[in-house]
Amino acid sequence: xxxxxxxxxxxxxxxxxxxxxxxxxxxxxxxxxxxxxxxxxxxxxxxxxxxxxxxxxxxxxxxxxxxxxxxxxxxxxxxxxxxxxxxxxxxxxxxxxxxxxxxx
Length: 104
Description:
By secondary structure, this protein is mainly alpha-helical. The chain has helices at 22-41, 47-63, 73-85, 99-103, and strands at 66-67, 70-72. The chain has four helices and two strands. It is flat, with a radius of gyration of 23 Å. The model has no long low-confidence stretch (mean pLDDT 84).
């Protein structure tokens, strides 16, 4: 009887346009700015120059694209970096079946 349905997108209203955080918007702006800078400085006559100009847009689009179980790819990479560079030796602070005997 007392069943509650929590919508999956409860935090979506806290995001800009329902997709981006402020950090994501800055990444998009910087990527687009780099694209414009490269596009205006290079003549873009050859295929290699066009690819060089588009690379910041591709990297930016990859970083801010949504990913299951994470906000986006950038958040996944930050979490993976934090896990790999964090402490690996975990201190035991739990209990065992002998903990009552040791506490007395």
